[in-house]
Amino acid sequence: YTGDVSISGGVTLTVHFDGFSPQFTLSCISTGGPATTVMWTRDSTTVTHGTETVLVNATTAEYIHTLNVTGRMEGRYTCTVANNKPSNGSACRDFPGQPIIVLVGKSTNSLNFTWNVSNTTDDSTCTVEWEKIGCLAENRDNIGSITTNDTSYSITGLEEGSRYNITVTAGGQSNTVSAVTTLKAPSAAPNVTQTLATSYSITINWELAPCEDITGYSVRYGEMGTNTIDTTVLNITGASVTKATISNLTLSTNYTIQVAAVNRAGTGVFGNATIVMTVEKSVHLTFRQKIIPDCGYVILDD
Q1: Structure pTM?
Q2: What is the DSSP string of 270-301?
Q3: What keywords is this UniProt entry annotated with (predicted)?
Q4: Domains in the chain, please, with CATH?
Q5: Which of 32, 62, 36, 66 shows the shortest CA–CA distance to 49?
């Protein structure tokens, strides 16, 4: 091996027979940097077919390099791995195809990426561009770009719990991936905007929460003056749902109601408490009429 990468494991050999034609699979592992050059040789002769390189651990930049050989190809096989940084320190070069971008770390306000390179030229630079993707496709902001000679970059100053498109371009080839900074529970507290009460139920409407990868809402309620509001919860699924009905209530009773937005990180802050009273049970009366001579009509309660 050469450069910054190193071979961390020996060569393994697997042999099985398919009829009379043996098939061999050789593999070696490299760590510590992007494998820009992988070369297999058999008795000093370069093998160009049946090779494959796969990233197996982005954190340690661990790659496994395999060689599949069919036929009676006895000999001494060698795996050579290098990152081939040029003398000027530039590791970013033209790509033989779209760059493979790998997310290796993130926080609430940063995204850390690496990408693969080839060794076709020594002097080209990479362009890294990013933009925040809002709830709507046209709602895009927090746009930035840099040029670098390296094969990794940490984008900082991003918004918490937000989705970004990251594009890497080099040698006329580009690729784009999407990633989300570490998500927090929703910060906005939806407030109840409208209520409708019956004897045993209350229907409420609330404000739509801002875009924070909302997955639903949590409605908590309880009889006013008791501690049941902390334990009685109605979970609503759907980012655009703004209405719910609370059933099986007690008639002529005051209830305290609050709403919070929910995402994959948890339940956010509950909004202002709204007090709603269920109505008394309706009483339906019927009447009969009786004609009293010389007095006209008199309506009597039935």
Answers
A1: 0.48
A2: ----EEEEPPPPP----EEEEEETTTEEEEEE
A3: Repeat
A4: 6-82 (2.60.40.10), 101-180 (2.60.40.10), 192-277 (2.60.40.10)
A5: 66
